[in-house]
Amino acid sequence: MKMNMNEVLEKWIAAERKKPIPILTFPIAQKMGLTVTELLANADTQAKGLKLLSQEVDPFAILTYMDLSIEAEAFGGKVDFDDNEIPNIHEPICKTKEDVEALKVPDVGAGRTQIYIDGAKKAVELIADPEKPIFAGCIGPFSLAGRLMDITDVMMKCVSEPETIHLLLEKCTQFVLKYMKAYKDAGLNGIAMAEPLAGLMSPKMLDEFSSQYVKRIIEELQDDHFAVIYHNCGSSTVKAVKKIAATDAIGYSFGNIISMEKMMAVWPDANHVVMGNVDPAGEFCNGTPESIRKATLKVMEACAKYPNFIPASGCDIPAHSPWENIHAFFNAVDEYYETH
User: Fold this and answer.
1) Are strands 62-63 and 79-82 parallel, antiparallel or unpaired?
2) How far, in Å, CA of 198 to CA of 196, rounded?
3) Which of helix, strand or coil describes residue 227?
4) Short-list 185, 167, 278, CA closest to 233
5) What does DSSP assign to residue 199?
6) Nearest to 47 by CA among 155, 186, 196, 169
7) pTM for this prediction
8) DSSP readout, 181-201?
9) In the beta sheet, which residues pair with residue 63?
10) Which of 168, 50, 51, 178 has the alpha carbon at shortest distance from 114?
11) CA–CA–CA angle 203, 204, 208 (5° rounding)
């Protein structure tokens, strides 16, 4: 459903009580009695899952499935499927400069991309909530490069063969742009772009091999009715905060490997929302309702004083996370606002 995203941003920042925006999709398979593989199998099932999710919890926004194998599969990557886990790329398809040169930028529709676009479009129609934007999940250009080429190899080649990596990043960026434009045409309100691999680099390298490409995508896609949320769960994000903020996304999400309190203290622009960062594995998946309550309240105590802060998970919540823990997170956010 079309909405002015600048007005949405202003509403988020102005709200006295912030609804969370956790990276939450795959646990809905439990509610549907499906495996993750079955949930993702077709557009109708994906859309029904997102509709059910919007009824089960009340976040500021709905995110579609953060399956970071989709884009690499479209390039020809082989995917490993596990009934209870998010799909993953089996092995890299680019090992040499010649492999990168020969790599073809796929058309939208390659692999499973059309299923995800159609599922998101159907979800927009099913949810039809003028107060709740829907963001498509996608991978960032450098993280996609790391799936097409071995992660260690791509990091080393940033130093030894930077021209090869830039060529690969150009092709990754071209496809991400085409793929995300298809979501824009499908009626979504924006994208949530995951760029975790960039969080392992120094600020200088992050700027050269990630942020300049992310910024290009944002400049081409983001407008009054379509916005970008940038997610990075790497460990170097606090040091690279200025390089990340310069991409000019509408919002930024950070992983639990960093201190959210430190991030909010150095964040340079109060006009963009910043989200995080309760541990998805340690708390949502393996914690208890009481432990996640304490972890959520701790983040809220440290960060809720900043008007542009929104509570969220530190990364994608695992599919088998207990729903008791997920509801405990939302309840803890409510508890904080009721007592402050």
Assistant:
1) unpaired
2) 5
3) strand
4) 278
5) G
6) 186
7) 0.96
8) HHHHHTT--EEEEE-GGGGGS
9) 135
10) 178
11) 115
